[in-house]
Fold this sequence. Notes:
single chain; 187 residues; mainly alpha
Amino acid sequence: xxxxxxxxxVSVLLVLGVxxxxxxxGVRRVRRSRLVVTGRDLASDGAAxxxxxxxxxxxxxxxxxxxxxxxxxxxLLRQRVDSARRAGAHLGDVPDLLPRLxxxxxxxxxxxxxxxxxxxAGDELLARADRHLATLADLSAAVATAVxxxxxxxxxxxxxxxxxxxxAHRAALDELLGDGRRTADPA
Length: 187
């Protein structure tokens, strides 16, 4: 009887452990999903916009404006990196750096959102936000200049036709001068 109870207790603990692990993994996956992260970012950006547009005297209204600008610059940088990837441009370490920049931007936006409406000094945080904005703008401009416009396919076809024509002309000339005098082949 004791053995049966022990086996039953171990199996119940095993099932509870598996269920707990499954629930924990599911919750983590949902919290990190793109939809939840985007919704959370939109909610915090909306709160920052409302704080910036609130009538009356609000301490650190500029913090809300900076939070909105950081969100916009991050979105612009993400779009430029995606379009540069599609164009096949060389981006170096920028794609690897992008998640860290976005995480830092999220932390700054959260801190700036907490600063709005509070009459405490936040000069150091505002300076960090300005430096982050300058970094995002600089990186975004560099990515925009890295994108090379795609080559014109008609131009490439015309160049290939011209090269074929030159080779045909050269072959005809060699055939005409077939009396032993061959021209030196530059290639």
